[in-house]
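[User] I have long wanted to understand how a fold can be written as tokens. Those tokens are not coordinates but codes from a learned vocabulary of shapes. Could you go through the record with me and say what the backbone is doing? Thank you; the sequence and its tokens follow:
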Amino acid sequence: FCCPPPKTNKQKQSERPSAAIPNSPRHTHDTRTTTMSDLSFANDLWDSFESVITRMTEGKTFCQDFFRFFVEISKITKEFGTKLAALTKNRGADTGSTNLAWLACLQEVENMANKTLKLADDITYRVYNPIEVHLRDTKKTKQKG
């Protein structure tokens, strides 16, 4: 009774570390990489509350910067589209052989202006407004709680 009984193949397989099994959650090729479990809030709460507060503050700051970035992109894009559209208005036509080319050029610039204005609207309604609503709702939730 000095030695434990030999292990069966089934026991040996079940005792393998999960890092040796491909496609397992902990399988990595580089041992220096950080796993998702290392980044979880549970670990931070268990170890130190300050790191959670820091992460939340940085996340809030990033969200606000992200919001301001898209506000500026929307303004710049809208201004560019408006100026392009104004550029095509009240332009004289050539009576010579380049008339068709000139009209095609004006039409293309006007199309580009319309696409740019549509992009500005898309940024406003699909990116900017949802972020603004999220920030407003988060602020209300914090004020209630």
About this structure: The CA atoms of residues 2 and 8 lie 19 Å apart. The helical segments are 9-14, 41-47, 49-88, 99-144.
